[in-house]
Specification:
It is a single chain. This protein has a single domain, classed as Phosphatidylinositol 3-kinase Catalytic Subunit, Chain A, domain 1 (Ubiquitin-like (UB roll)). About 20% of the residues lie in helices and about 30% in strands. The chain is globular and about 30 Å long.
Length: about 80
């Protein structure tokens, strides 16, 4: 299974986190996984909702929840924002 190491920026705390995202995972599922990872790493300071989205930090595009990580153009060292 191909995974990409990405940089996740959390504006709520101003922190950056590194995480691996599976290429075949839907963006909506990846956002759900990242919420749990970031919540744990930030000592619970961030709790996502059903409306949590991933944004491409390079161009500001909100990523479609119904396409895969690969199809969204995410690769190693992609920078994403979790809101």
């Amino acid at each position: 299974m191909t995974k990409y190491l990405v940089d996740i920026y959390l504006p709520a705390s101003g922190e950056h986190f590194d995480a691996y995202l599976p290429a075949g995972k839907l963006i909506g599922e990846a956002a759900y996984l990242l919420v749990h990872i970031v919540s744990s790493l930030s000592d619970g300071n961030f709790t996502g909702t059903a409306d949590t989205v991933l944004i491409n930090a390079e161009n500001g595009e909100v990523l479609n929840r119904n396409i895969t990580v690969y199809d969204a153009g995410i690769r190693n060292s992609s920078r994403l924002i979790l809101i």
